[in-house]
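Supplementary notes for students who missed Thursday's class. We covered one full example, reproduced here. Read the sequence, then the structure, then the short commentary at the end.
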Amino acid sequence: MKVAVMNMSGNVGKTTIARQLLAPRLGAPVIPIESINADDQEVEALLRGSQYGELLAQIGGLSRAVIDVGASNVEDLLEGMRLYRGSADEEFDVVIVPTIGSPKQIRDTIATIDALRDRGVRGDKIRLLFNMVDYRDTVPAVFATIFSYWADHKDFRLDPTAVIHTNELFEQLAGANVADLVADQTDFKALRAQTADPGEKRAITHRLGLRRLARGVSEEFNAVYKILMN
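Structure (token representation):
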């Protein structure tokens, strides 16, 4: 199973979806396609979008992979798909397009879907993921433009339950892994009871809170994974 995660827009949560949701459940390596970081500083990356032929060579020897395509590299990657005719549909089993509920990202999401279809990716492989949705909102209301577009075309997969809600955990991960937080068997309550230091108690309580948040996030990830990969 080879899964690409991409959107022409940045800030839709592609890397979190690739590394935290998909890779652990697929048991697959993440291949980042990126040339700039969040500070817009040039960094050394494994591959760039303009190296599409090299990407095909690399994933050709893999049975599983998650390809995390940075927004700055989508255009070059799409050009590679155009030049290597049929490669996108033949090499990628699923293309996940994450989106959030802001007008620019929604417009770019539709443009991304159009570009993938133009390059021969079958609609059943293109799967939308609604990300960073407030639990008080309803997906069809927030993403009404996308639902209207889908009603007119129906050439990609749209499921309103393929949703990841906002969660304070994502702001506090600081490089931690959700799966590792869930698997941590530390008895934080016992540790907290053993110390009289208020600062240490707060630190232990914070770690306990992260694990509790991670459990909820992991359950949501499991549900979304089943929807997307079914």
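Commentary. The beta strands are 2-5, 30-33, 65-69, 94-99, 126-133, 163-165. The CA atoms of residues 49 and 73 lie 5 Å apart. If anything here is unclear, bring it to office hours.
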